[in-house]
């Protein structure tokens, strides 16, 4: 299976959001990654439900919504109604993770969990069968354009072993600092989905950049 690409609209031109989304529709992107930040769980504020609805209005690719917020349970239904098809919550923000995952699934969405760089994937062992996706943060969440954390490869391999042992079909997504230099090593380690923000939207040819990432083997 080829790697899945999920460009992050956090790095897009917000003044031309419709045209940016339409560009992704015409590209080989598999998902559109939407980063929701509240300024509390992470030290930045991005956008919320109305902008997600606006993206969905024009999107022809599934919305992969990443909630970097406290109390995510309060907003699951709102983001589902806004158009999310995948909802990922942070393990660090959930006191009752299993309950949250079931709530996401009950809404008809795929359930994901994101883990910060300091968090071991071991915490997912008891819920791995309930997960459609694990988003491994390869930078500290909050800002785009950060340097990739090299320990990520080790975490991906460890998580892949856990998934295989459990006989699960959970996808591994990498978020942060993904580019042409590390994409193939991430795929080799076991990654299934690559989130690319600045690398795509700062490129002279974003669609060509996505196409080249899709060729990673």
From TrEMBL:
This is Ribulose-phosphate 3-epimerase. GO terms for molecular function: D-ribulose-phosphate 3-epimerase activity; metal ion binding. One of its GO terms (biological process) is pentose-phosphate shunt. Substrate binds at residues 8, 66, 142-145, 175-177, 197-198. Catalyzes the reversible epimerization of D-ribulose 5-phosphate to D-xylulose 5-phosphate. It catalyses: D-ribulose 5-phosphate = D-xylulose 5-phosphate. Pathway: Carbohydrate degradation. Its EC number is 5.1.3.1.
């Amino acid at each position: 299976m080829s790697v899945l690409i999920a460009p992050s609209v956090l790095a897009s031109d917000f003044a031309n959001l419709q045209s940016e989304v339409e560009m992704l529709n015409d590209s080989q992107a598999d998902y559109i990654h939407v980063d929701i930040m509240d300024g509390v769980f992470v030290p930045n504020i991005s956008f919320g439900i109305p902008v997600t609805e606006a993206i969905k209005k024009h999107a022809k690719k599934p919305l992969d919504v990443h909630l970097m917020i406290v109390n995510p349970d309060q907003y699951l239904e709102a983001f589902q109604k806004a158009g999310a098809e995948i909802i990922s919550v942070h393990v660090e923000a959930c006191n009752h993770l299993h309950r949250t995952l079931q709530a996401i699934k009950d809404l008809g969405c795929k359930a994901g969990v994101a883990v910060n760089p300091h968090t071991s994937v071991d915490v997912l062992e008891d819920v791995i069968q309930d997960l459609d996706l694990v988003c491994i943060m390869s930078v500290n969440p909050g800002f785009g354009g950060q340097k990739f954390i090299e320990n990520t490869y080790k975490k991906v391999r460890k998580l892949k072993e856990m998934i295989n042992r459990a006989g699960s079909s959970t996808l591994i997504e990498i978020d942060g600092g993904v580019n042409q230099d590390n994409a193939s090593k991430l795929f080799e380690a076991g990654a299934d989905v690559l989130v690319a923000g600045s690398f795509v939207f700062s490129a002279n040819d974003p669609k060509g950049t996505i196409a080249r990432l899709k060729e990673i083997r």
